[in-house]
Amino acid sequence: MTYDIIVLGSGPAGLAAAVAARGRDKNVLVVGNRWQDSPLARAERVDNYPGLPGRTGFELMEEFVRHAQALDVAFVVGRALSLLAWNGFSVTVGSQVYQGKALILAPGVVRAAKYPGEAEYLGRGVSYCATCDGMLYRNKPVVVVGLAPDAPSEANYLKSLGCQVTYVSPHEPEGLEDIPWIKAGRLAVKGEQNVTGLEADGSPLPCSGIFILRRAVAPTDLLPALKTEEGVIQVDRGMATNLPGVFAAGDCTGGPLQVSKAVGEGHVAALSACAYLDAL
Ligand SMILES: Cc1cc2nc3c(=O)[nH]c(=O)nc-3n(C[C@H](O)[C@H](O)[C@H](O)COP(=O)(O)OP(=O)(O)OC[C@H]3O[C@@H](n4cnc5c(N)ncnc54)[C@H](O)[C@@H]3O)c2cc1C
């Protein structure tokens, strides 16, 4: 099935966008990590969202999700690992691919700084997606940098393909199946034409591939042609980005980093996406 709109991010901006798009009778898929783990769900008390003072962030999020669910918004819980803008948009989550005609980016602020060498070797040995690229490294040594809860199962998957997997992370992982673990946090990608290894707390780990599995992938890593300035996605007043059919809303477009701004932008982005679809 091809959705009218795929929303990447299940925070206030993404959910507001989904609600607004359903109001225009578009079918909508929201792809996002568990909302219970979202930044707002950690807020002890939110007092500046109009009409609903004194709620916890968790309670507000619960209401937002319930509203979207009641309007038959479709949800996929998981990390968007890759995005292809061709004939609409294809979003990969785990081993599944979802198609949409328009895309709204609402991933919040993806804070993780990159490791030295990571950007340089992206696509030349560095990957964010075991499902997409695992087969390229069959019978070869790879390192999984595990920074997301599902990273051990991704490492097990790579092993099942025949990759020789080493797992590196700052904390002891759970669920690894016969895969060596190295505790390290200071990492650097090393290579020549392609990746040749990972330096982990000063020690070399020779390998052909490095899978860096964070909780979220930055939108610019998913869509490298996306225009940003000082780390935020550039949008016009209709929340359109520089890429046709791609809109953005919420913290990812810059401050103030607040729920009401995220919700308002999500609403505008959805209306613009609907207008884009109607004009197609
Ligand atoms: C502790 C705390 C207290 C706060 N208190 C207040 C307050 O009192 N009032 C206020 O107005 N604001 C407050 N904020 C700020 C508010 O939470 C944010 O401004 C708001 O949540 C932004 O919404 P968003 O939808 O843009 O992004 P987010 O809420 O960050 O949602 C984005 C979601 O997308 C997910 N995501 C990102 N990339 C991917 C990917 N590749 N695949 C799948 N999912 C992905 C993220 O995991 C996240 O769940 C607080 C924030 C924190 C952390």
How would you describe this structure to a colleague?
By secondary structure, the protein is of the alpha/beta class. It contains six helices and 17 strands. The strands form four sheets. Strands 1, 2, 3, 4, 5, 6 and 17 form a seven-stranded mixed sheet that branches. The chain is globular and about 55 Å long. The model has no long low-confidence stretch (mean pLDDT 94). The protein binds flavin-adenine dinucleotide. The site of flavin-adenine dinucleotide has 33 residues, from helix 1, strand 2 and helix 6.
SSE succession: EHEHEEEEEHEHEEEEEEHEEEH
What is the CATH architecture descriptor of the largest domain? 3-Layer(bba) Sandwich
CATH 4th-level superfamily of the largest domain: FAD/NAD(P)-binding domain
**N-end to C-end Cα span:** 18 Å
Tell me the fraction of residues in β-strands, as a range.
25-35%
Shape descriptor: globular
* Share in helix: 10-25%
Bound molecules: flavin-adenine dinucleotide
Number of strands: 17
Briefly note the structural class of the backbone: alpha/beta
Oligomer: single chain
Q: Mean pLDDT, as a whole number?
A: 94
CATH class descriptor name of the largest domain: Alpha Beta
The biggest beta sheet reads:
7 strands, mixed
- Give the uncertain stretches in residue-range form: none
Radius of gyration using CA atoms only: 19 Å
